[in-house]
Design a protein that fits this description.
Number of helices: 2
CATH architecture of the largest domain: Beta Barrel
Distance between the termini: 67 Å
Structural class: alpha+beta
CATH class of the largest domain: Mainly Beta
CATH topology of the largest domain: Lipocalin
CATH superfamily of the largest domain: Calycin beta-barrel core domain
Helix content: 10-25%
Largest sheet: 8 strands, antiparallel, barrel
Strand order of the largest sheet: 1-2-3-4-5-6-7-8
Number of strands: 8
Shape: globular
Strand content: over 45%
Length: 134
């Protein structure tokens, strides 16, 4: 009988701990100060197939100019809301560049944001981080 009570109380402690963690996590509010990142100069980091790709870009409320691998591309920016935007390449050189890109800011810190992006209408999304340089 004492073994049963011991196991019962151990299980109750585990359940209490699990419910406490669930309660704490459910009360945690993810910071999203997206409007702080509508303009500025950034360094972007994206991992694709275990390879880190880095680019630098400057964004105004309507235009983004990005340098990647020695090439410069410009896109128009259309904000859907404070945390989501659509990029349209200004001078597309091929069919892929003609596709609009949807970017959604997921979380923010004081000087960076994590985002997901992909072609408009495509369910395949990739993740990245942008770090404010100025």
């Amino acid at each position: 009988m004492s073994q049963f009570l011991f196991l019962y109380f151990c299980d109750m402690r585990k359940l209490t701990l699990i419910f406490g963690i669930i309660f704490f996590v459910s009360c945690f509010d993810v910071e999203q100060n997206c409007s702080d990142f509508k303009t500025g100069t950034y360094k972007s980091e994206i991992i694709i197939d275990s390879v880190l790709y880095t680019s630098n870009f400057t964004r105004t409320t309507k235009i983004q100019i990005e340098e990647f691998d020695g090439k410069i591309d410009s896109s128009s920016v259309r904000w859907i809301n404070d945390c989501e935007m659509i990029f349209k390449t200004i001078n597309p050189k091929n069919l892929n560049e003609k596709k609009d890109i949807h970017l959604k800011i997921l979380t923010t810190t004081t000087n960076s944001y994590k985002f997901e992006y992909g072609y408009v209408g495509d369910t395949n999304k990739r993740l990245g981080e942008a770090i404010l340089m100025n």
